[in-house]
């Protein structure tokens, strides 16, 4: 398999769709560990669809799929945002940029 950075947007979207289908099957079969691995693979693939220029250093973003979790971005390294969870124990952590809720810019 080629790296996500070398894939086209269409290829990445196809990979994500196929991975989500595998996730659905793993969930139906009750294979929790396989489901979690596939979920992470899809999450990393989604990072390559994010416009990194929309992420501002020093800004606080809501974490997708968690109502009360916010993350302050200190810097980006690859497809990971490094910083701190608001209200956490303030040690530096990295999360995939696809976990950040970004405002969609109007065209």
UniProtKB/TrEMBL annotation:
Organism this protein belongs to: Phocicoccus schoeneichii
Gene3D superfamilies listed in its UniProt record: Hypothetical protein YfhH domain, Hypothetical protein YfhH like domains
Protein name from the UniProt record: Transcription regulator
Pfam families listed in its UniProt record: DUF1811 (PF08838)
Gene that this polypeptide is encoded by: yfhH
